[in-house]
Amino acid sequence: MSFALILESWRMSFQSVHFLLFLPLVAGAYFVLPAGFRRFWLLLASYYFYFFAAPKYLPVLLCGTVFSYIAAWRIDVASSRRGKRGWLAFGVAGLVLALSFFKYNGLYARLLVPLFAAMGMDYSGDYFVTAAALGISFYTFMALGYLIDLYRGDVPREKSLLGHALFLGFFPAITSGPISRAGDLMPQLRDTSRRFSAQGWADGLRLMAVGFFKKLAVADTLALFVNAVYRDLLSYSGLTLTLAAVGYALQLYFDFSGYTDIALGAAALFGIKLRQNFNTPYFATNFSGFWARWHITLSTWLQDYIFTPLVWSRWTEKIPFLGRKVTKPPVLSSLAVVFLVSGLWHGDTLCFLFWGALMALYRIGEELLHRWVGKPKKHPSALVRAGKTAVVFLLWVESLVFFRIGTPDVSGSVIDAFSAIGRQFRPWSLTQTGTDLFEAVAEGFYGKGFMVALFLVFSLFCLALALWADWMQCFRLGGKHPAEGLKLLHPAVRWAFYFVLVLCCFAGFIAGSGGFGGTNFLYGGF
Amino acid sequence: MGKLLRNTVLLLVPILLYYGLFLAFEPNNYFGLRAKTPTGAIFGELREYRENPTTGVLIGDSRFANIADMRTINEVTGREFSNLAFGGASLKENLDELDYLLERYPQIEEVVFELSFYTLNANYAADRFGFIELALYNPFAYMTNLSYNLEAMQNLVLWLDGQTLGGGENETRNPVQDRYIQWNPLPGGQEVTIRQDIAKYIEAISVYTENWRLDTGEGNSFDRLLETIEACEEKGIRFTVVLPPIHDAVMEYAVRQNGIYEQMLPLVQQLNESPARVLDYEMTERPVYDEEAWFDGFHLDYKHGLSQWTRQLAEDLK
Question: A5–B3: do the CB atoms touch at under 8 Å?
Answer without folding.
Answer: no
